[in-house]
Amino acid sequence: MSKIQKIRGFQDIYGENAKKYRYVVDTARKIFEKYNFEEIILPFVEDVSLFKRSVGEATDIVQKEMYVFEDRGGRTIALRPEGTASAVRAYIEEGMYAKGGYKKLFYEGAMFRYERPQAGRYRQFHQIGAEIFGVDTPMADAELIKMVKEILDELRIDVRLEINSLGSFEDRKEYINHLKQFLETKKENLCETCQTRIETNPLRVLDCKVEQCKEETKDAPVITDYLSEKSLERYTKLKEYLKALDIEFTENPRLVRGLDYYTDTVFEFITDKIGAQGTVAAGGRYDKLVSQLGGPETPALGFAAGVERLMLLVETLPEEKPLVVVIPVVSDYNIQALKSSNLLRSKDIKTETLLKEGSLKSKMKLANKLNAKFVVFVSDKYELKYMDTGEQEIFENIEDLVDVLNEKI
Ligand code: HAM
Predict the structure, then answer these.
(1) What's the predicted TM-score (pTM) here?
(2) Residue 367 Cα, ligand 1 centroid: separation in angstroms?
(3) 47 — pLDDT class (breaks 50, 70, 90)
(4) Span 224-235, average pLDDT
(5) What confidence tier does 304 reach under pLDDT thresholds 50, 70, 90?
(6) What is the mean pLDDT of residues 233-261?
(7) 282: Cβ below 6 Å to ligand 1?
(8) Cβ contacts of residue 386 below 8 Å, gap of 6+?
(9) How crowded is residue 234: how many other Cβ atoms within 10 Å of its Cβ?
(10) Domain edges within the chain
(11) For the chain, what is the mean pLDDT?
(12) Is residue 82 in contact with ligand 1, taking CB distance under 6 Å?
């Protein structure tokens, strides 16, 4: 019979990778909590119009990457391609804007985008992300970036930070007009996708990966020349704060991001170590999104990081708890072995009972394979074996053995 395989772009995360996954997510969670963010567990599916109205009709995500289908009730729903839209929807729907509107949320979980799979890019991937609602100070931008940096530092991941300001939607309208005029003069020489982007999404031409497009747009006008005084002031303050926090950054006036909701600050943490998909964490401000989705005017900002990309960069995992394997020497001692394991676990010791039947030799072989640091042989006495030195100690009762083990672990 033919075997069923997983769907292209989807992954089983197991073994060492599952440990890395957990390490990345737990580290982020610890830091989110330290910064006093609250967790929100968001649904995997949403009404498709949520993403159209937030991420943007003209974006790649909405145009060609969403998993959209009709459910049995005839609703058109989408697997979430990102978390911000859902967080904003929840913020409005659950009335979190009450009491001044200030709220700090974090989330983790699977996202879905029908992209071309390659190293660091999957159709189901996982994000950790955080959103801050109800503050418009550049202090908030700086502290958010600091928090992301802290997560990356804690994971010992070396990245560079790029920042930009996209200004307000009004600033951008004027800029886009000038950019379009410029791009029209280069149209012939741009790739096919960029030729259509001039009309649909001209900003995206600036981060096209095709060499020829990069070359042709080298002298394109930059958004930072079109910022209003207010936006410029925010951007200047942000840079001042980042310097004060010892966070290195480079300004990249071509950094535009692939989602339409951003205003003012945008940033990306990038590495060159994992190929073309080098952005590991990214985000920015989206001061108009809450009102665009029917909520009260509320400034907001956030970020998300790709867990799989972080996993590719994690080199060492924290040391694991040593394993104790409990072996009944013959089946007459099975009950005693089960009880011994219970006692060990009640003391928080990682314990595996050897459950398979077989010779003592085959049981020892399995204990070795499981990477046991200690083995406890159960018979009419208890024998503790140190696997690294081969030394053994005999105990009349299990309590004494546990005391000794507790000291060694
Ligand atoms: P994004 O840049 O679309 O932003 O995604 C954030 C991160 O998710 C990327 O930097 C990358 O690490 C990871 N990622 C995206 N697509 C894939 C994929 N196909 N495979 C693997 N990893 C991927 C957002 O999603 C915004 N919601 C971020 C944000 C939050 N902005 C404000 N608040």
Answers:
(1) 0.94
(2) 42
(3) very high
(4) 96
(5) very high
(6) 96
(7) yes
(8) 373, 374, 392, 408
(9) 21
(10) 15-167+227-313, 324-408
(11) 96
(12) yes
pLDDT number for residue 208: 87
For a ligand 1 pocket test, name from 54, 60, 82 the mutation site with the most ligand atoms within 8 angstroms of its C-beta: 82
* Dist. CA 296 → ligand 1 center (Å): 26
Query: How far apart, in whole angstroms, are the C-alpha atoms of residue 140 and residue 150?
Result: 15
The CATH H-level (homologous superfamily) assignment of domain 15-167+227-313 is: Bira Bifunctional Protein; Domain 2 (3.30.930.10)
CB of 121 shorter than 6 A to ligand 1: yes
Distance 70 CA to ligand 1 centre (A): 25
- HEC states along 124-184? EEEEEEEEEECCCCHHHHHHHHHHHHHHHHHCCCCCEEEEEECCCHHHHHHHHHHHHHHHH
Q: Which residue has the tokens 């989807």?
A: 10
pLDDT for 151-192, tens place per residue? 999 999 999 999 999 999 999 999 999 999 999 999 999 999
279: CA distance to ligand 1 center in Å? 8
Give ∠ CA 203-58-183 in degrees, rounded to 5: 30
CA angle 36, 39, 43 (to 5 degrees): 160
Burial class (CB in 10 A: 0-12, 13-18, 19+), 67: middle
**In this predicted model, what pLDDT tens digit does every residue of 53-83 receive, in sequence order?**
999 998 999 999 999 999 999 999 999 999 9
- In terms of phi and psi (left: phi > 0; alpha: psi -120 to 50; beta: otherwise), the region of 181 is alpha
CATH number 3.40.50.800 given to 324-408 = yes
Q: What is the DSSP-derived secondary structure letter of residue 282?
A: E
